[in-house]
Amino acid sequence: MEKVYGRFDLIISKKNEVYLNIETEPSIARELSDFFTFEVPGARFMPQYKNRMWDGKIRLFSQMSGEIYVGLLPYIEEFANRNDIDIEYKEGVKDGEQPRDGELDTFVGRVSPKSKGETLQIRDYQMAAFTHAVGNNRSLLLSPTASGKSLIIYLIAVWYAMKTEKNVLILVPTTSLVEQMYTDFIDYGFQESMMQKIYQGHSKNITKPVTISTWQSLYKMPKKWFDQFGCLLGDEVHIFKSKSLTGIMNKMVNCKYRHGFTGTLDGTQTHRLVLEGLFGSVNKVTSTKELMDSNTLAELKVKCIVLTYPEADCKYMKGQSYQDEVDLIVRDTRRNKFIIGLTRALKGNTLVLFQFVEKHGNNLHLMMTASARLNKQYDRKIFYVHGGTDTETRENIREITENEKDAIIIASYGTFSTGINIRNLHNVVFSSPSKSRIRVLQSIGRGLRQGTDKSTATLYDLADDFTYKGKQNFTLRHFMERINIYNEEEFDYEISRVPLEKDKNG
User: pTM here?
Assistant: First the structure.
């Protein structure tokens, strides 16, 4: 192959902190484009694909502009090595900053984070994650729920607040998480005078070194506004594939330090590469299994309950669409009575997670409170949380349950499956069907935190079997996908079958 750029096939320069620019001959550019082109899972079900407005593929390298996300540099190098292609790096492309020997230990000793007034013992993997982040400018830290992720974020945030002239921006998906992280930072020893919150009702005028905000509050801000930040920390970044979030990232062209955090990825290559492009290469901090083996997390027991239905119900369900099947399941009185009975029989604080507020959550809450009144169980507190519950109420519920021993929290997946910390949670019930790897693992994480007099947590995974003449229904197949997740994560589980009686009103 004739090399048109001297002795190099690829010349890589840094356009800004978002994009690299690649110069190469057209044939290599086409090969590079193919290398970074992926089919989006489920694209054929999307309206744009059905209307032939999109081919269902995502392209991470633009042949026309030569642009590609900075965080994908390792994959460019992989492509070059695979094809025996030489690379020339222009100034600034590889600019990691390694701290001096002993500098990080000195910093941690000086910061000395606390919890409830007592000095925290920073775990080895937390220190390793912090070291990796500040030594690489960019990273995507994979840290499971209850691993002490907020402390890692705190150390990184304070490091950059002290080391850089620009401000630090921390993005989280919900107002509840803004309040929780703000409270955590104060608990660790950070001064309120050093940080501010931004969400509805709060000023967007930055006056302090560290800002904690929801992305919804900032995505409409002009590009110039983001120039004041030198460091971006994104929590729960599995959500960052939305256009609003990537829009924020793309506006931060002068933000040199970028670190993303999540408990899990969705398992698709496109999801991982987009996030690595925005932040940096994945670094696995630890795993849920390792944390349980070291007694850092509570031991998890998974009890799968497969609800079986009379033949007439199975015959009726045959031919129904997925959405019809879900609607029938969550509205089924027999099934909801079973959930109420199961929940009331469980000892300890119990979180019941549902998907649909109107169709399911409201009904579960009414049935649970009615059952409590009927059985005169007024001493057991029942809480109800969904998207319409204001931030202050959610935070109050979280704080109350920390001190309760036998409360019931009925909550939507969207409000309590991601990020919310409840240390004293003993049971989690999946009352709605789901196959999302992220949702499943994030929800399980709600129950894994160690608490007073708590060493185990139990997940009750409800599935619905409408098999008819050997053909399995949609949600049962989704249950089998959850079983695959449990196997991959090395969770112990057991499966039992419970028949539901024929509906007397049917």
Answer: 0.78
